Amino acid sequence: MSDLASLELTPVERLLLACCRAAPDPAAMRQALHAAGLDWAAFWELARRQEVQPLVARALARSGLLGDLPAPASSDVEAARIETTARNLAARAELEAIAAALGARGVPVMPLKGVALALRIFGGLDARRCGDIDILVREEDWEVARRALQERGYRPLDTTRPRIREHPFHDVPLIRSAGGRGFVVELHHQLTDRRFARIDHAALWRRALATGSAGLVEMPAEELLVFLALHLPKHDAGMLRLIADIDHLIAGGRVSLDWDRVLELAGQWRARTPLYFALAASTALLETPVPEQVRAALRPRAWKRRAITALAGPLAMLRPPAPARQRADRFRLAYCLMLEPASLAVRAYRHYVLAPTAGEAGGFMARRGGELRGAARTLLALAHANGDAATQPHRNSHSLHN
Q1: Cβ(139)–Cβ(146) under 8 Å?
Q2: Contact criterion met (CB below 8 Å) for 227 and 219
Q3: Can you tell me the distance from the alpha carbon of 116 to that of 95, in angstroms, rounded to the nearest whole number?
Q4: How confident is the chain (402 residues) per 10-residue block, as mean pLDDT?
Q5: 211: number of Cβ within 10 Å
Q6: Are 171 and 186 in contact (CB under 8 A)?
Q7: Is 380 exposed, middle or buried (0-12, 13-18, 19+ CB in 10 A)?
Q8: CB–CB of 178/153 below 8 Å?
Q9: pLDDT in tens, 318-354
Q10: How far apart are CA 173 and CA 167, in angstroms?
Q11: In sequence order, what are the beta bridge partners of 112?
C-alpha cells in the first residue's frame, strides 16, 4: 500500500483528493485551494473526468470555502450540487416505486450502487453522480420482477450488440420515460459474472432478509465492500468516484464493518486480490484507514503487486492513460491478473482480450484473428505501462508496490 506523501501530486490533484476524502480537512483544502500554480479550470475539468464534481462541490460548501473561489467557479459548484440532487431525487422516487411494485408481489429488491448507496454512505443525494438503477433480485423472482417492470412501462433496450444482449449476470437494460425523464433499470440476478467469482447468493439473501422479506433491502456492509472491490477493476475511467465510495464506506462513520467477516467473504468469493487493490487505491489516494492486519492478510505475491500496480495502480487511476484503447486494455489485463487460481486468470484473459471482435463470424479464423489482435494489444499495453513506470520516481514506484 502507499501513503499520499509518496505520490508527488500536482496542485490540482492535491486539491481534488483533499475534497474527496470521507473526512476532509478544511485547513488542508484551503491550503491546496490557494497553492501556487492551481488552475481552477483544470481542476474542475479533472473533477468532471473523475466523475466527482458533486462530491467536490459538497466538500467545498461544507468547508466554508465557496467564498474563496473565483466568481464563475462558485456558480459552477452550486449548479453541480443542485443538478445532482434533482436527478437523484427523481431516481430515488423511481427506485422506491419499483420496490413497492415488486414488494406487493413478495419480491425483495436489493439496490446496487446508485441513489441507495449515495444515501447510505454519503448521507445525502447531493454528493454522488448516479446513473442507471441497478437492482438485484433472487433467481426465483426473476420472471415476476421482469413482468412487474413491464407493467410499469419498462421495455428492453433495442440493441444488436451481443455483449449487451447476452450479458452474463443482468438482463438487457430496461428503459422507461416519464415526466420528461428517462429511467434505465438493469435487473440483476447475479452480482457479477459467475465464471470469475464464486458468490453464494443464497447466503447473501439470507443475511439481507434477516430484517425483512419484501421491498427494499440493504446489502450487508461487509458484502457491499467486497462487491465494490469486485466492481472497481471493471472500469477504466471515472475511477475516483468508485474509490470514494470505498473510502466513505470505510471511513464515513455511517457503517460499521466486521473486518474478519470481510476477509472471510473475500476468500469465499475469490475476491482477495481485487479487494487488496481496491483498498490499496483508496489508501494511497484518500488515506483510508485500513487495519494493517487486513492489508497483510490480503497481500498477494510481490510480482503480482508490481505487475498490477504498473498496469492499473493508484497513479493510473488518478491519471488515466491515453489513448482509450490502451487504457482499457491495461485495466482489463490488470483485472485478469487479479483472478485466482491461475486457470481462472487465463480463462478471463481469453474471454476479455483474445475473443473475436463482436459481430465476427465464428470458426477457426475468427478465433485466430482475435488471439493475434489480443496478443498485440497485450504487448502494447505492457509496453505502455512500462513506459509510464519508467517516468515515475523510483521511490514512488517502490512505495506503491509494497
Answers
A1: no
A2: yes
A3: 9
A4: 67 96 93 90 96 96 92 91 95 96 95 95 95 94 95 85 56 85 92 92 95 84 98 94 98 96 98 98 96 97 96 94 89 95 92 69 61 86 82 48 52
A5: 8
A6: yes
A7: middle
A8: yes
A9: 999 888 888 999 999 999 999 999 999 999 999 888 8
A10: 10
A11: 134
All structural domains of the chain, each given as residue ranges with its CATH number in brackets, are 4-84 (no CATH), 87-219 (3.30.460), 222-402 (no CATH)
Distances (CA, A) of 348 to 200, 262, 335, 351, 362: 20, 24, 9, 5, 19
Task: State yes or no: cis peptide before 341, omega within 30 of 0.
Answer: yes
CA-to-CA distance for 242 and 15, rounded, in angstroms? 18
- Say if residue 323 is preceded by a cis peptide, omega within 30 of 0: yes
Give pLDDT, residue 179.
Answer: 73
pLDDT score, position 384? 86
First-to-last alpha carbon distance for the chain, in angstroms, is 5
Q: Give the pLDDT confidence score for residue 393 in this predicted structure.
A: 52
pLDDT tens figures, 103-115: 999 999 999 999 9
| Half-sphere exposure at residue 219, Cβ-oriented, CA atoms within 13 angstroms | 25
CA–CA distance from 141 to each of 169, 189, 215 (Å)? 14, 9, 12
Separation of alpha carbons 255 and 248, rounded Å:
9
Q: Report the amino acid identity of residue 298.
A: L
Cell triple for 59? 466538500
| pLDDT score for 211 | 73
Tell me what pLDDT residue 168 has. Answer: 60
C-alpha 90 chain-centroid distance: 22
- Strand ranges inside 79-223, DSSP E: 108-112, 133-136, 155-156, 174-178, 181-188, 215-216
